[in-house]
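Appendix B. One record, verbatim.
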Amino acid sequence: MQDGHPIDTTHRRDPPPGASARISPGGEGVAHPIPIVIDTDVGADPDDALALVFALASPEVELLGVTVVDGDVDLRARMAARLLGMAGRPDIPVVRGVRRPIGPGRGPTMLGFEGRGLLDGDDAGPEATILEATAPEWLVEASKRRAFHLVAIGPLSNVAVALRLDPTLPDRLLGLTIMGGVLAERALPAAWRRAVRERGAAAWPDHNTASDPTAALVCARSGLPLTWVTSEVTVRAPLRRDGRERLPADHPLGAALGHMVDVWEAAWFHATLAALGRRPPVPRDAVAFLHDPLTVAALFPGEWLTLRAVGLTYAVEDGLFRLREAGGDGGVATRVSVAVDGAGFEAFCLGRITEHIARTGAPSGPAAAADSSVSDGCGRNQDASESQPTRGLE
């Protein structure tokens, strides 16, 4: 809402060619594994890091690249590059993106302990190449080389700028899955609903769309096949203490992920949730949320995640991005999360991550990496002597 008036309601656009076959990311008409690019604000919250490793551990998807967004994108790119290298995939390119929101919003957000537990450790061997292209440019050019599904688990600034840069981009993407939005506010934990009533936008649980509501609206209006994995569902999928303890401390990647979780728990998680009231909206043994791994998993949902097709309307009101279910046959056809088995998904997610870490083995250092080059997606090859050949975006 701009000066008390909605700046957008419903946007209708004919879907791009093939969209009917693409509306279900893991459904008929989509090749497996699904090629994906992850757009992330990897930083203090460990769920982005967990999502990257979870994607690498999942045979249903093929990670082609990682773009970073919001605030200190140099630091975020270093984190992504380190994680990919530790996970055995230094061949996957990392691209720095937009630092600030394209309109009024909560972003950029830096908490001051981004990278702690990851970048302050010993040299973990070869890291992924950080390209010189900007993320919006790279997304546009990479989509011309190979169609992919875009998974956005941070503020949507990169995606919105790319869509404005090339309005034909939706025609080349398989779809867009977003961690963001709140569809059923009444489904939020009671403490969160009370905080929103008392504190307004400052307590809104969806950080991603609150960081850049204008960008969220651009993405919602894009005509892309969309899946929204919404905050009232993801807060029902916590990482609990027993799950954190499954991360192997005797492997550099497992130790780094565990340290990131510990820093987040001590510096932010419990203190911030405690401000919501005497009855925090999480189990007592929760240490983080699995927002972003659950969003990746929406491309191949199991019995732990329920999605349904609905017609949605979109608006920015009082500085917040809103999505609402339209009545009858109105709205934009969209897939939205409606329920999650938090314990079931946690077990599934941690099982995959720990199995991937076990398969990766301890990194053996830069000397073990083969010489190669990594494409920046814009027709230029960059030297990456500590990388393996890229898959799909050369």
